[in-house]
Specification:
The chain folds into 2 domains: about 70 residues, 434 Repressor (Amino-terminal Domain) (Orthogonal Bundle); about 80 residues, Sandwich (Jelly Rolls), CATH 2.60.120.10. Helix content is about 30%, strand content about 30%. The chain contains 5 helices and 9 strands. A hairpin with a 2-residue loop joins strand 1 and strand 2. Helix 2 crosses helix 3.
Length: about 180
């Protein structure tokens, strides 16, 4: 996982330099402090997927390029076979499998997320756009500021992802869910 994080960081630096931004300018445009952005580029911390999506949008590159070093190639359709999506472990608790990663110019990023059980406090994030979560198996809580919504297998939630939100598994078990970020 550490090697993958370092490779993503190197690609972020290359994309920033191609765009001609300094790290400070990029941080300001992303709405984060320069130290947090420098941490992303150092490869020493785990970069949240929401931040990778923001960075890809700022540098006008597909998220697949940042995650894998490869550009998407399909314009009309793309098929992702079971277990073959681009797999990314962004945090020790979360494993993301990107679906449709090979489609050029997609309007949404689609992932199957496996969330391990955790006793840790939830980590809130926010990002532009909207998000849809559909529980494939397990039980999870979606936290919104002072509210939480429990979702079980087959349940879904659609929300404005600019509000602070977090996901946590329930009952000490793993959960899998479909995440669509628009």
């Amino acid at each position: 996982m550490r090697e993958q994080t370092e490779e993503i960081a190197e690609r972020i630096v290359a994309a920033r330099e191609t765009c001609g931004y300094s790290a400070e300018e990029a941080a300001k445009l992303l709405g984060i402090n320069k130290y947090e952005y420098q941490d992303f580029e150092s490869g020493q911390i785990d970069i949240p997927v929401s931040s990778i999506l923001k960075i890809a949008a700022l540098y006008n590159v597909d998220v697949k390029l940042l995650l894998t070093g490869e550009s998407p190639t399909e314009q009309n359709y793309t098929v992702t076979r079971k277990g073959e999506g681009v797999s990314v472990e962004r945090h020790k608790r979360y494993k993301y499998q990107a679906l449709a990663s090979d489609f050029i110019g997609k309007k949404a990023n689609i992932f199957i997320v496996t969330a391990d059980a955790s006793d840790e406090n939830v980590q809130f994030s926010s990002h532009e756009g909207q998000e849809f979560l559909y529980v494939i198996d397990g039980t999870m809580e979606v936290h919104f500021k002072n509210e939480k919504v429990e979702l079980r297998e087959g349940d879904s939630v659609f929300f404005n992802s600019s509000i602070s939100h977090a996901v946590r598994t329930k009952n000490g078990a793993r959960a899998r869910f479909l995440s669509v970020l628009m």
